[in-house]
């Protein structure tokens, strides 16, 4: 809960402004202090110079995709110095100031996500924001700016954002899954990537992502030594430009396009000399006992209908060597899918 324990301050009221000084407050479990000024006409400026430490706000966020609401909390310290003309508060280009935040013990549903530093500044060149932190056992960085002019309003700032860096490196898959409230995740490994985000669109932002997966394990068995995925999203389609890497000891290649609605739905895959007993491990932890041998194959997955997966058709071929299926030796075989 967001609680306020006590607030003490001095204030002075004149015809021109209300001035706040010696602010000392116990709020959200921490300390808050500073000074401020609120003009009583359009001639002055709003001013704030504040500092805080140990603030620990908590939120409960209902999310449709999970059964329980997500609980979010963070221990924060920082300072802010901000000035805005009273007659141009709605114009971000007229604001001047900087906010510095230290975010510690970021907790998501009881799991420690890590720590981060966030800075936001605004001046003649526009608004600048930078976040860097140690999250999910790895690194994260987001750097963005928003050029502003005198006709810009605060609602316009998100559409003006330009990201020069948006990356994550060596995130723990197990910690991510635990944050998603999976108590005993089967999977582990490291996730890295970079994101190019274009939100200067009327309808949907476009996203282009490069993702690298290292050391993916299922039930402590190595499934994918390394996978590199280049994919995009344009508001209605996922575009898989390229997937390549070592999966189940073999070489995997994939690409495709899948439309959420009417349009093309097609994925193509090629797997060469993979271990049969590891291919299906992500699907079922008992899959290692189903088959053995060396598998190569090609497949195309085609979707039909106006929705995500109304009807799906799989075509292709599969070749196996030294194969054993449910304890029965098969040897070498070739079969269509």
Describe, in short, the structure shown.
With 337 residues, the protein is mainly beta.
What can you see in these coordinates?
The protein is mainly beta and 337 residues long. 4% of the residues lie in helices and 67% in strands. It is built from three helices and 20 strands. The protein has a 20-stranded antiparallel sheet that branches. The model has no long low-confidence stretch (mean pLDDT 90).
Summarize this structure as a short list of keywords or feature phrases.
elongated; 20-stranded antiparallel beta sheet; 20 strands; mainly beta
Write the layout of secondary structure elements.
Layout: E1 4-13, E2 17-27, E3 30-39, E4 45-55, E5 58-61, E6 70-85, E7 96-108, E8 111-123, E9 126-135, E10 138-146, H1 157-160, E11 162-172, H2 173-179, E12 187-198, E13 206-218, E14 221-233, E15 237-247, E16 250-259, E17 265-275, H3 276-279, E18 291-304, E19 311-325, E20 328-336
Antiparallel strand pairs: 1-2, 2-3, 3-4, 4-6, 5-6, 6-7, 7-8, 8-9, 9-10, 10-11, 11-12, 12-13, 13-14, 14-15, 15-16, 16-17, 17-18, 18-19, 19-20
């Amino acid at each position: 809960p967001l609680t306020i324990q006590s607030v003490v301050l001095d204030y002075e009221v004149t015809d021109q402004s209300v001035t706040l000084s010696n602010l000392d407050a116990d709020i959200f479990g921490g300390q808050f202090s500073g000074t401020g000024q609120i003009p009583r006409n359009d001639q002055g400026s709003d001013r704030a110079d504040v500092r805080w430490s140990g603030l620990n706000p908590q939120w409960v966020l209902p999310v449709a995709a999970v059964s329980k609401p997500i609980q979010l909390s963070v221990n924060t310290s920082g300072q802010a110095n901000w000035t805005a003309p009273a007659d141009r508060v709605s114009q971000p280009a007229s604001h001047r100031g900087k906010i510095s935040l230290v975010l510690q013990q970021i907790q998501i549903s009881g799991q420690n996500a890590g720590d981060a530093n966030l800075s936001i500044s605004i001046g003649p060149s526009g608004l600048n924001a930078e976040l860097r932190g140690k999250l999910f056992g790895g690194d994260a960085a987001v750097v963005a700016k928003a050029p502003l002019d005198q006709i810009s309003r605060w609602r316009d700032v998100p559409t003006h954002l330009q990201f020069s860096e948006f990356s994550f490196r060596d995130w723990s898959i197990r910690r991510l899954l635990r944050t998603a409230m999976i108590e005993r995740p089967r999977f582990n490994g490291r996730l890295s990537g970079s994101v190019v985000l274009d939100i200067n669109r009327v309808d949907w932002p476009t996203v282009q992502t490069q993702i690298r997966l290292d050391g993916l394990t299922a039930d402590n068995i190595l499934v994918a030594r390394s996978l590199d995925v280049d994919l995009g999203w344009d508001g209605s389609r996922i575009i898989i430009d390229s997937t390549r890497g070592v999966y189940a000891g073999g070489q995997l290649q994939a690409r495709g396009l899948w439309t959420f609605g009417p349009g093309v739905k097609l994925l193509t895959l090629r797997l060469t000399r993979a271990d049969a007993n590891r291919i299906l491990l992500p699907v079922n932890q008992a899959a290692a006992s189903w088959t053995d041998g060396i598998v190569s194959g090609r497949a195309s997955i085609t979707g039909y209908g106006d929705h995500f997966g109304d009807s799906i058709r799989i075509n292709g071929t599969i070749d196996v060597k030294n194969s054993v299926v449910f304890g029965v030796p098969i040897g070498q075989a070739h079969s269509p899918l």
